[in-house]
Specification:
The protein has about 650 residues and is of the alpha/beta class. It has 3 domains: about 250 residues, Aconitase, domain 3; about 140 residues, Aconitase, domain 3, CATH 3.30.499; about 170 residues, Aconitase, domain 4. Helix content is about 30%, strand content about 20%. It contains 21 helices and 27 strands. The strands form 6 sheets. A 7-stranded mixed sheet has the order 25-21-22-23-24-27-26. The chain has a 6-stranded mixed sheet with strand order 7-6-3-4-5-20, with helices on one face. Helix 2 crosses helix 3 and helix 2 packs across helix 5. The longest helix is centred in the first third of the chain and has 16 residues.
């Protein structure tokens, strides 16, 4: 009798089709082939410098796209110079280049390049947006993108898959943002490392692709590897409307497929939700904060900037004016969205209502502009509300749906939307592709192209091998939920991303302005530097500079209660060992400035990962591959 194959869920199907290293049944780490890569300008410059250092003539993956969407406010020469560098690199190596103003990388990639059943690796933590179209789409550090473009495997822990069953239909006034906030309410922003969330159930069919993408996008705040939806009839309709019907592949879970855990969201019982300051996991009912005075409302970001989102806002504001005391800004996700809003009259509605139309870019989400006033309350449709991320440390930022944002814009107070007509799936999206450059040479490249390098672009610093014994000082001690924004501030500092020595001056600027100088002094005295942290260290963006710049300052170890996935991978990639306390209570036994003697650290890393330092027991759980990276000083050292 022929043995029947085990039913597979969507995650298992896609990973199995891309597996190049490891066994899904037994191995703790898997290597997968990456079909597509994306970068954005805040992380892409370093990724391409690293790719360039590999000495290849062109990319080796199926598709690579370089987007400019973060640092589009060009004050000084640095950002403009970096954009010239990115354009020339793209032309030389066969990469598609998306010019500033074209739109936000995740929205654009979903519209024009995302393919069901493929793998996508992006140097941005919200790359999982692609899960809305049936991709295994993962955020990673820039050096991982460089390796993937070179044809190398990307490594992930063998994932546990949590099925998120959706039932019912969303009530009036709610939307996909409320679904993902409900999931965040249940699972929080920590403790989900190594999981993939897969959405299934009868409620999925009621969600269009932009709604699915919103849920997958903000799943990044859970700390999971990625989130994924099936590729079904709704996916096919979206791709056909985009003129890309040939990219459709049906991928649904087999009948009888199982999950490691299941959580059910009954959408019939959903109500408007918000993430209160200062965490996406601090979820409250909108009705519990109804009536709170609002100073600023910003609609857009990679989470909620689709045609469906902005058209919904226009329907709510039609024939009305926003409250006089409220500043309202709207950033569309792409030029395609803008063109559609021009054609159906939505832009005229928004203009007449008193909204400010912002550039198609990340902008306000990363604190690059539109910072609130002192102590202001800001409602935003983006995905993160970490303290100070908006550019104003005293601001109170709430994350809400476009529906709640629009309803609140009319009253000047937090207000739940009572309902709005559903925006139907367009039968055809316009192909607005004129700001994608070098599509004709994608994957081929033009080898004689001159690379443009401005004075702010510095060489990639190399890591150093781990010594047998390490004498170090605790350069800083921080608490729980330290984000990559705390470690490596964005906003006004982000323009230094291609110049590590300059950017390193601002490491931990929000926590300790003397960190850089203390590290330099320790280095001059022959000490390595160590960071001590609490739970969920390294939350937030995929910003590899949060590991690269500390490495440049001589940081050789992080000791924390727990470390988030992308940041842990970045630490390893740059030769920094990620230690955790065997007993979290020992966190209280280490102090800033304390001298630490790591006797036999290299031997411990090569062995079981356990070591005792100053009477405190530490451990690091590394694979054989990760041990080599840490011991040799990082991924670039291993490649060269």
């Amino acid at each position: 009798m022929k043995k029947t194959a085990k039913p597979r869920n969507v995650t298992e199907k896609i990973i199995a089709a891309h597996l190049v290293e490891g066994d899904m049944a037994v191995d703790r780490e898997l290597g997968i082939r990456i079909d597509q890569t994306l970068t954005q300008d805040a992380t892409g410059t370093m990724a391409y410098l690293q790719f360039e250092a590999m000495g290849l003539k062109r990319i080796r993956n199926d598709l690579a796209v370089s987007y400019v969407d973060h640092n589009t406010v060009q004050i000084g020469f640095e950002n403009a110079d970096d954009h010239d560098f990115l354009a020339s690199i793209a032309k030389k190596y066969g990469i598609i280049y998306s010019k500033a103003g074209n739109g936000i990388c995740h929205q654009l990639h979903l519209e024009r390049f995302g393919k069901p059943g493929t793998t996508l690796l992006g140097s941005d933590s919200h790359t999982p947006t692609g899960g809305g179209i049936g991709q295994i789409a993962i955020g990673a550090g820039g050096i991982d993108i460089a390796v993937a473009m070179a044809g190398g495997a990307f490594h992930i822990p063998r994932p546990k898959v949590r099925g998120i069953e959706l039932t019912g239909r969303m009530p009036a006034g709610t939307s996909a943002k409320d679904v993902i906030l409900k999931v965040l309410e249940k699972f929080g922003t920590k403790g989900n490392v190594g999981w993939i969330f897969e959405y299934f159930g009868p409620g999925v069919a009621a969600l269009d692709v932009p709604s699915r993408a919103t849920i997958a996008n903000m799943g990044a705040e859970l700390g999971v590897t990625t989130s994924v939806f099936p590729s079904d009839r709704v996916t096919r309709q979206f791709l056909e409307a985009q003129g890309r019907g040939g990219d459709f592949t049906e991928i649904v879970a087999d009948k009888g497929a199982s999950y490691d855990d299941v959580f059910t969201v009954d959408m019939d019982r959903l109500e408007p939700l918000a993430a209160a300051p200062h965490s996406p996991g601090n979820v409250v009912r909108v009705k519990s904060i109804a009536g709170k005075k609002v100073n600023q409302i910003l609609i857009g970001s990679c989470t909620n900037s689709s045609y469906r989102d902005i058209r919904t806002v226009a329907q709510i504001l039609k024939g009305k004016k926003v409250a006089k005391e409220v500043e309202v800004g709207i950033a569309c996700g792409s030029r395609q969205v803008v063109e559609m809003l021009l054609e159906d009259g939505s832009l005229a509605i928004l203009h007449a209502a008193g909204c400010r139309m912002l550039e198609n870019a990340c902008g306000f989400c990363i604190g690059a502009h539109m910072s609130p006033s002192t102590n202001a309350v800001s409602l935003r449709t983006n995905n993160r509300n970490f303290e100070g991320r908006s550019g104003t440390r005293s601001a109170q930022v709430y994350l809400v749906s476009p529906e709640t944002a629009a309803a609140s814009a009319l009253t000047g107070k937090v207000t739940a939307c009572e309902g709005v007509a559903k925006v139907p799936m367009p039968k055809k999206f316009p192909a607005v592709d004129d700001m994608f450059l070098y599509r004709e040479t994608a994957g081929k490249g033009v080898p004689k192209t001159k690379i443009v390098r401005g004075p702010n672009i510095a060489p990639v610093p190399a890591g150093s091998a781990m010594p047998e014994n390490l004498a170090a000082k605790v350069a800083i001690k921080v608490g729980d939920k330290i984000t990559t924004d705390h470690i490596m501030p964005a906003g006004a500092r982000l323009k230094y991303r291609s110049n590590v020595p300059e950017y390193a001056k601002y490491v931990f600027e929000p926590c300790d302005r003397d960190f850089h100088d203390n590290c330099r002094r320790n280095q001059s005295e022959g000490w390595a530097n160590v960071i001590v942290a609490g739970e969920s260290y390294g939350q937030g963006s995929s910003r590899e500079h949060a590991a690269l710049c500390p490495m440049y300052l001589g940081v050789k170890a992080v000791i924390a209660k727990s470390i988030e996935r992308i940041h842990r991978a970045n630490l390893i990639n740059f030769g920094i060992v990620p230690f955790e306390f065997e007993d979290p209570r020992d966190y209280d036994r280490l102090s800033a400035g304390e001298r630490l003697e790591f006797a036999g650290i290299a031997r411990a890393i090569a062995g079981d990962g356990r070591i005792e330092v100053n009477g405190v027991k530490l451990r690091t759980d590394l694979t054989a591959r990760e041990k080599q990276l840490v011991l040799k000083g990082g991924l670039l050292s291993c490649l060269n």
